[in-house]
Amino acid sequence: MRRLLITGGAGFIGTNFVRYVLGIDHSVEITVLDLLTYASQKENLQGLPVSRVRLVVGDICDAQLVDELVKETDVVVHFAAETHVDNSLKQPGIFVSSNLVGTFTILEACRKYNKRLHHVSTDEVFGDLPIDSTERFNEESPYQPSSPYSATKAGADFLVRAWIRSFGLMATLSICSNNYGPYQHQEKFIPQQITRILSGQKPVLYGNGKNVRDWIHVEDHVRAIWLILKKGRPSDSYVVGVNGEHSNRWVLAQILRIMGKASDDYEEVADRPGHDLRYALDSSKITDALGFEPKNTEFVKGLTQTIEWYDQHRAFWQNR
Ligand SMILES: NC(=O)c1ccc[n+]([C@@H]2O[C@H](COP(=O)([O-])OP(=O)(O)OC[C@H]3O[C@@H](n4cnc5c(N)ncnc54)[C@H](O)[C@@H]3O)[C@@H](O)[C@H]2O)c1
């Protein structure tokens, strides 16, 4: 596993993964394939050793380019996707293209050259749970996606599973909950609130703010992916969460408190159509089978560090 091809490696989780892997394994060489959509920027990879990281700007739907890059790699880690639910309601076509056709293109190249693939998925494929239930999703839960984003991610997961079953592709999947931490675009819930406050605007809350998300620090997600690459059983899926369930209203209240704002200093806006109510994951499999142990289990501490990061890295989010 010396040469890694990382799709979407200039986006939020991809950037954190590239930085983590370079730090933990000094023999690894990385090629990032990224279209550099609005969600990413090449500066995210600034300061990394050029002898070990190469950025190729291109589309995962470009079969010739993907073929060339997969041919010369040992393992593909597939993050690239359109990821914002609101955008998927306005422009579903690019989600079908990047998330479905893009994944198909990666799969075909991996099949041709018999390369190991790790596919990064989301708990949104399962749909949502009632707010007041104690049920959690696991690897066996049925898929019931709600938005064009989650439907195209679900479709991509099915493609990966079909390539495993039909063609014997060596692939693993991770299905993770909501991530937070550095390098996340400010369109997403936590950085949106932080950057609005830092730029003198009021933060905004969708609907009644009761929607519950299972928050995981991005560093724990990338550690889980690395663990799956090292120890995971090819053909297996692993659900990754840290029991970090909090309502959006509670998370916003913490951000306001940490940033020294009054608890009512925000605006409520109309809810997103089809807004999922609650996500929650049961990570027993990755814990028991691979020994996964999250390190960032204190959410408020991780949130405070994330706020500091956005304060200290204004160039990351200003003028975007
Ligand atoms: N953010 C979360 O909370 C979360 C949780 C679970 C799973 N995931 C999954 O993790 C992956 C990464 O998510 P993220 O939050 O880092 O997203 P992101 O939007 O920050 O990054 C996505 C990256 O993919 C690139 N990309 C998009 N379309 C492309 C294309 N056609 N060709 C090449 N590159 C393309 C973008 O330029 C960007 O760098 C996604 O597959 C997402 O579904 C995200």
TrEMBL record:
Key words of the record: Lyase, NAD
Catalytic activity: dTDP-alpha-D-glucose = dTDP-4-dehydro-6-deoxy-alpha-D-glucose + H2O
Annotated ranges, domain NAD(P)-binding: 5-302
Keyword NAD in record: yes
Gene3D superfamilies linked to this entry: NAD(P)-binding Rossmann-like Domain (3.40.50.720), UDP-galactose 4-epimerase, domain 1 (3.90.25.10)
GO molecular function, one term: dTDP-glucose 4,6-dehydratase activity
EC number: 4.2.1.46
CDD domains: dTDP_GD_SDR_e
Cofactor(s) recorded in Swiss-Prot or TrEMBL: NAD(+)
Family according to the record: Belongs to the NAD(P)-dependent epimerase/dehydratase family. dTDP-glucose dehydratase subfamily.
Protein name according to UniProt: dTDP-glucose 4,6-dehydratase
Gene this chain is encoded by: rfbB
